[in-house]
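# nightly structure sweep
# worker-07 picked up a monomer target from the shared queue
# config: single-sequence mode, recycle default, output format = structure tokens
# input follows
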Amino acid sequence: MATTQYTNTSGRRKTAVARVYLSEGTGKVMINDRELANYFPSLVLQYKVNQPFKLTGTEGKYDFKANIDGGGITGQAEAVRLAISKALIEINPEWKPLLKVEGLTTRDPRMVERKKFGQKKARKRFQFSKR
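# output follows
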């Protein structure tokens, strides 16, 4: 029984949290026990997930399994991208400047502003009636 060496990292974006297990392999991708193209049907989101591999030239060299919870599909894809970037940096620290230039090592801090009472949304107000 051989144990495979893997790197475990997490990434977050808005309310999405992704836990990624990266190991050397043939480029097999499983997200919540589904294939990449099945989970993210949009080519833009598939590109975002594979972006760290493209930049480092490691396409098809690593398998990864991701567990994602919360958020929408764009936030989930960007959370996975951050987690993969962090895992690749753990494997080879020389890739950090390459990924940092593209902004893949920084967690995007923007969150949804909360709705305030007496208002329709966070900033939108109910219609004002003078009379």
